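Notes from the pairing session

We agreed to fold both candidates in a single pass and log them together. This is the raw record for the first candidate, unedited. Please don't reformat it; downstream parsing expects exactly this layout.

Candidate A
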Amino acid sequence: MADIMMAAIDRGEAGERQVFHTGVSTVGQGGDDYLCGHCGRRMVHAMDLTRIEVPMVYECGGCGGYNVLPES
């Protein structure tokens, strides 16, 4: 399990992508932890977001910042 810093984007960059509000905490069944690229908050715990097949933006439940997976 690794800590992965998300890539911060502006709201206008979300385009047609789905926006997922992570809320207080989003917890999975295994995988990595993802940190907000704006404030550093741990948004997603133990998930593999690379398996999600639709274009997605993740909204931080702390600061409201929009994030995407970092480029590999």
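Candidate B (folded immediately after A)
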Amino acid sequence: MSVTTGAARPSIRIDGKRRWVFYAVLYTNFVVWLDTAKFSVLTPFWAADLGADATEIASISASYLLGYFPMLFLAGVLADRIGPRLMLLICLTGVTVLGGSMAFVQTVDEMYWRNMLFGVFFGFLWAPCQRMLAVWFAPIETAKVTAAWVASLMIVSVVAPLIALPIASAWAWEEAFLIISALGIPAIIAIAVFTRNRPDQLPGISAQELAHINVGRDEAARANVPLREIAKVFRSRSVLFMVAAGALATTPTWLIGTWSTYGLITLQGIDPDVVTYLAPLAAVPVILYAFGHGRAVAGPFRGRLRPPMVLGAVLGAVGFLAAGLLNLPWLAWIFAIGTLGFMVDPLFWGSLNTYWLGVAKPELTGTLNGVAAGLQVAFGYVLVNASGRWLDTSEGGLNQLDTLWIVGGVIYLVAIIPVLLSKDVRIHQEPDPTPPPPLPGEARSTPDAPEPSVRPLPEPTT
């Protein structure tokens, strides 16, 4: 099974109006995840202020997943039915307001409910972003732009401690909540001004750019998808297996956000200033790979999408099991869970959006990503909520968290099974002897070069 891309450009040279759509989606993804990450990073501070114990920390941290996962299903369907732009505006408005309002909580119960409501609005991010990228970029580009989108998420793991911890140490954790949430305001403006649900709805976009984006897509396919078409896609075994893989493959990463900073500062007694500058280093290899994932798919993986997904789960399992079984020094512990554990994000999610193009129509990516991500968050809620009872207080320091990492490592390994049971999808570009039509601002090498021959995308097989 393959995704053939005709004469679409293999490089991620973003021209014209697409450039601003790309930047707006990346910045939106970054600030929303930053608003989420600051909650986990500042766990030692708000937990101490509110007098929360380990069980309450787990319950509060899981509460936003409880609000998050049902909205992922709804947002995916709505993104395919009425478009992703409104979904992203709802997300940004709610996250900005709720994220800042947490600075004013006084009790554990109040933090629980506000965090759950925060998760409701957070649920409008994932699938609408994926839908926007699938509709605005040619199929050959989706692996690269999706990988860059995942990288904008991964950068948060570096930036969040560098911003949140110094502010909390110098002033208070409440100020960190307010300052970070305010960064969502420019994102609201960017989505409102620079994006539309479909490229042909954006004023000023050129015919050349539309032709480049829509290679192999007819007008009927680009229209809003009827519900019967959405339901029909789930008859495919590969879709069902890959949805199951999405539900499991990155679920253990929720444990990293909940317990890593708490483990280092509260349990191990590491100075917060040391954690501020050392912990983000663990994410650097993940981010560097994420930006190169598109090239890795085209190169070492030879266009195949299942191998990177499997590799991500294997690396996560190695990191988590090492942290849980080998009694690692705290610095090695950081890299085991923060580097190996997070590699699954660019390797799996950076491939999944393109995988859907091989088994379904591009206009169904919102629903498919929403269902996969919704199940992942549902499992994440169960996992994080239960994890507070797994701390072994008879052990010292980070060893109290060993059971969490062992459970997470096993989940990574189980996630490999549905990936292997699904059909493989390969993305490739067919050779074309003629140059593609120029985008705005580009010049032809020869003034009278003929128009390229374009072979439409094949109908997906299920």
